[in-house]
Specification:
Distance between the termini: 35 Å
Strand order of the largest sheet: 2-1-3-4
Strand content: 5-15%
Order of helices and strands: EHEHHHHHEEH
Radius of gyration: 17 Å
CATH architecture: 3-Layer(aba) Sandwich
CATH topology: Glutaredoxin
Shape: globular
Helix content: 40-55%
CATH superfamily: Glutaredoxin
Number of strands: 4
Length: 206
C-alpha cells in the first residue's frame, strides 16, 4: 500500500489525463490517493511567458484563487470535487469558465457558488503560493504540473498523452510505485510527445 499525492494545476490538460488514470487505477485498490493544488502561475512568477501560453497562466491565477477559497472553507477534500467539475467543463467539454459556468461547477461540487467571486481576490494569492511551495518541497526542486509523490518520493509527471486501458492503467501504477520506492531510482524522462488526446463531448451529450 502506498500513500500517493498528485499535485496539479486545474488548467493543465496533461494533469487532467494523469489524474483520471490515477484515480481509476487506484479505485478499490490498496493505495491512498489525494489530489492537491499547485500553480503554473506561481511557477512562472518573475519569468517571461510567451503570448501563446499567457492565457493559460492568467486562467491558472484566477482559478487558483477559487480553489484556494474552496479548500479554505470546505477542507482539503473539496479540491478533488471541484477539480472533477471544473476539469470536465474545461478539458472534456472544451468550455470556458465564465462566472456562470464557474458558479455551476461549484454547485456541482457541493460548494457555495458565491466562491466564484474570488477569481479576482488577490488576498488569496498567498494561499495559492503556499500550496504551490508545498508541491515544490515535495518534489525537492522546481517542476510543473503534474507532480506525483509516492510514499514521500517526488517526481515530475507522470505525463500521459492518452488514458490507458483499465489493465494497463493498473500495471502502470504498480510499476510507478515499484520505481518510486526502489532505492537509488532517480528519474525517467522521454522527449515531448505532443499534447494529450482527450475525448471531447458537449454538455448536451453528457
Amino acid at each position: 500500500m502506498a500513500e500517493i499525492d498528485l499535485y496539479l494545476d486545474p488548467v493543465c490538460p496533461f494533469a487532467w489525463v494523469s489524474s483520471r488514470w490515477l484515480l481509476t487505477a487506484a479505485d478499490a485498490g490498496p493505495h491512498t490517493v489525494r489530489l492537491r493544488q499547485m500553480s503554473l502561475a506561481a511557477l512562472n512568477d518573475g519569468h517571461d511567458v510567451d503570448a501563446a501560453h499567457q492565457p493559460m497562466i492568467d486562467r491558472s491565477r484566477r482559478l487558483g484563487r477559487v480553489f484556494a477559497a474552496a479548500t479554505r472553507t470546505a477542507g482539503a477534500e473539496a479540491f478533488a470535487r471541484l477539480y472533477d467539475a471544473v476539469g470536465t467543463r474545461l478539458h472534456v467539454h472544451g468550455g470556458d469558465l465564465g462566472p456562470e459556468a464557474l458558479a455551476a461547477s461549484l454547485t456541482a461540487a457541493g460548494l457555495d457558488p458565491a466562491l466564484a467571486d474570488h477569481v479576482d481576490d488577490t488576498g488569496l494569492d498567498r494561499d495559492v503560493t503556499q500550496r504551490h511551495k508545498a508541491s515544490q518541497d515535495a518534489l525537492g526542486g522546481s517542476g510543473g504540473s503534474p507532480i506525483i509523490v509516492i510514499d514521500g518520493h517526488g517526481f515530475n509527471g507522470p505525463v500521459l498523452t492518452e488514458s490507458p486501458t483499465a489493465q494497463r492503467g493498473r500495471d502502470l501504477l504498480d510499476a510507478l510505485v515499484t520505481a518510486a520506492t526502489t532505492p537509488g531510482f532517480a528519474a525517467l524522462h522521454r522527449p515531448y510527445q505532443g499534447p494529450p488526446r482527450i475525448e471531447r463531448t458537449t454538455e448536451e451529450t453528457r
